[in-house]
Amino acid sequence: MASLTAPGIGSGLDINSLVTQLLEAESAAPVARLNTRETNLQVQLTGYGLLNSSLSGLQSSLTALQNPATFQGRTVSSSDSSVVTVTANGEITEADYDIDITNLAESHKLATDPTLVAAQFTEVTDELGTGTLTFKFGTDPDQNPGFVQNPDRATETVEITDGSLTGVRDAINDADIGVTASIIYDGSYYRLAITSDTTGEENGIQITVDDADEADNDTSGLSLLSFNGTSTNIEQTDAAVDAAFTVNGIAITSASNTITDAIESATLNLQSAGTANVGVTLDRASVGNAVTAFVNSYNSFIDTLNTQTDFNPDTGEAGALNGDAITRGIASTVRRLIGNPVGEVGDTLTILAEIGITTDSTNGRLEYDNTVFNQQLTDNFDRFVSLFSAYGVPSESGVSFVSSTDNTTVGDYAVNITTAASRGDLVGSAAANLNIVADTNDSLDFTIDGVDATITLAAGVYTAAELASEVQAQINNTDAFSNAGISVRVTEAAGVLSITSQSYGSDSSVAITGGNGETDLVGAAATSTDGVDVAGTIGGVAATGAGQLLTGTGDASGLVLEITGNTLGARGTVDFNRGYADRLGSYLDSVLQSNGLLDSTTDSIQSQIDSVAADRLTLADRLDSLETRLRAQFTALDVLISSLQSTSSFLTSQLDSLPEITVRGSN
Predict the structure, then answer these.
(1) pLDDT value of position 3
(2) d(C-alpha 357, C-alpha 339), whole Å
(3) Looking at residue 489, which CATH number applies to its domain?
(4) Shared-domain flag, residues 458 and 437
């Protein structure tokens, strides 16, 4: 059985207390050092967290100012929104426009004519007729040969197998061809109404009938719906009408009541006949709000910086980042990027002070002079974009700045064009056969801009212009092409068809690869010519062309310009600068990115904090070893003292048991 021990019992020493006091003495200094180190690191980590937060806020405030679109905004208003409303789509010239609307665009509307005995329907289930309806869309649909087909709308056919009013209505609607059928009761008879889904004269509805009763133009059966140059049995209740209006006295017509091209980069929405004034002004408020947000965020960063790096000589207290080299470097770079001018000396708006933003020399905060700022917004609004964004200002029309990259060097670049961009096309070698017969010469296999699809033309006898419109409509309404953003323009000259892709560059092409109508429509030796990319130099160095886009190399690397028109040779210059928001934003991106300067610094501090915890464990292990050693030593001492005490007691007992010796003296 193991013996029970109690330290100090034998000797009377308070060994537990002695060991505890010695351990406390041994650990006091290193524990204090570890606590101090951990506290300082935690304070520093908190300081970096506040610095990171303020820099992130500054970074976010730059987003709007880095985007050139912020400075291209315009505000528009209408004096009478019941007449016309307006929205801005981009950069509009600041001006006032007087709008005078005579009439709105209207959809073509047809309805069965109850003056015809066969069209006097008393029930929705009454029989109208079966067969095939062919719909074409264009101007003067009831005229022959005056009808002009809309080249953007394909011929459509609808098979009618259920000849009741409801059956015909449902078949037309289910076909989804751009018209809506409905049944209306006029108090005496039910009438089948057909309405074009699109307004305007060029969207009038022409209906030809292949009647199951084999009489296509009489006044019975499905022929009651005919509306063409041969027979007009269905009644026109509203003609297809274009909108008619003037802008500053200039007469304009439009198939739609939504007008996107009358005023550049603005959309007019015609509401009713009448007059109104449309005002276009620069969107100074959005720019002002973006600049104010930047100033406020910058000042918040400066306040955080001042607090974290401050030192009070009276109290000796210092901020968490006082004397920190990394913080000092960040602050110095930010101040330098804000202070250095943009562009060349002498240019308009090259420093923030010119727009009323100056630096307070006592605390480093930005001060905002609203009067100066608003005056510059009025006088030099177009220069604000290059003061803040990465932006190129072309000297000539037909050259537009598109974008740049971080690799684009600030500079003034001359533009020289050696080849203008062109579109791919196909030109027929003979006049087209205008008689299109189903399954005989009605199909064409196309490859346009690298996409393959087959079109089928509606059978019929066309004029050359009508056939060009039909081919264009069928191509542009083919899903494979439209879903890929591909469209063409088809024209004719002396009956010869020309098909031109609407895209530019070497990827632009038109080819007929087969189909039973190839020879009849374009001849046996049609010529296909691929488009070419724009070519030229930017800054005297060969650039890369893609369609109408020219991308620079060398110092102009990443500078993308759009080149329109066919003018060759010198095309002016593009003055490219990096504004305050762009260059400050690029620097903050590098500082705040994952594994960036702040990220790696805070990771290092956290690693040091983690090492303090490891040092605490090491210290605890060392103290455990010391305690074991001390207890062993004191236990040995306790045993020794106990042994000595036992020996002392034994000797004392032995001495006490000795007989008393008496020494008698002599007399």
Answers:
(1) 39
(2) 11
(3) 2.60.40
(4) yes
- 578, 605, 635 - which closes a domain: 578
Q: Are residues 247 and 230 in the same domain?
A: no
pTM above 0.85, yes or no: no
Exposure b/e, 405-430, CB count within 10 A at least 16 = b: eeebbeeebebbbeebbbbbbbbbeb
What does DSSP assign to residue 241? B
For residue 469, give both structure tokens.
Answer: 């419109």
**Local mean pLDDT, 10-residue blocks, the chain (667 residues):** 46 72 73 72 82 93 90 86 86 82 97 96 96 95 89 93 97 96 97 97 96 92 96 96 96 94 88 94 86 95 91 82 90 93 74 92 91 88 86 91 92 96 97 95 96 94 92 94 95 97 97 96 96 97 97 96 96 93 93 86 79 74 75 72 75 77 59
Q: Count CB neighbours of 115 within 10 A.
A: 8
- Computed on alpha carbons and rounded to an integer, the radius of gyration of the chain in Å comes to 45
- Residue 227: predicted pLDDT: 97
pLDDT at position 614 is 75
Tell me, yes or no, whether 99 and 127 share the same domain: no
- Is residue 318 helix, strand or coil? strand
The DSSP bridge partners found for residue 562 are: 400, 549
Percent helix, percent strand, percent coil in the chain, to nearest 5: 35, 30, 35
The answer to whether residues 411 and 390 touch, using CB atoms and an 8 Å cutoff, is: no
Element (H, E) at 329: helix 325-339
57 touches 40 (CB < 8 A): no
Angle, helix 597-657 to helix 580-592, in steps of 10 degrees = 30
Q: Indicate if 94 and 116 belong to the same structural domain.
A: no
Question: Are residues 113 and 95 part of one domain?
Answer: no
Beta strands in 239-296 (DSSP E): 243-247, 250-254, 258-259, 266-270, 274-282
Residue 127 pairs with which residues in a beta bridge?
A: 164
pLDDT at residue 1, rounded to an integer: 35
Q: Residue 176's domain is classified under what CATH number?
A: 3.30.70
Structural domain includes residue 566: yes
Q: What residue type is 161 in one-letter code?
A: T
Q: Would you call 311 helix, strand, or coil by DSSP? A: strand
CA dihedral defined by 169, 174, 177, 182, rounded to 10 degrees?
30
Distance CA 208, CA 134 (A): 5
In-domain check, residue 391:
no
Torsion angle in degrees (nearest 10) through CA of 263, 268, 271, 277: -50
Supply the pLDDT for residue 323: 86
Instruction: Specify whether the CB–CB gap between 240 and 254 falls below 8 A.
Output: no
pLDDT at 610: 77
**Cα 157 off chain centre by:** 40
Our count of domains for the chain comes to: 5
Q: Identity (one letter) of the amino acid at 298?
A: Y
What are 80-84's contacts with CB under 8 Å, separation 24+?
Answer: 80/274, 80/275, 80/276, 81/271, 81/276, 82/271, 82/272, 82/274, 83/270, 83/271, 83/272, 83/273, 83/274, 83/275, 83/276, 84/268, 84/269, 84/270, 84/271, 84/276, 84/278
Is residue 347 assigned to a domain?
A: no
Same domain, 35 and 153: no
The domain of 474 spans 425-529
pLDDT at 73: 76
In a domain, 394, yes or no: no
Q: Distance (Å, rounded) from C-alpha 231 to C-alpha 211? A: 13
Residues 116 and 189 in one domain: yes
Same domain, 326 and 474: no
Can you read off the two tokens belonging to residue 46?
A: 């908190």
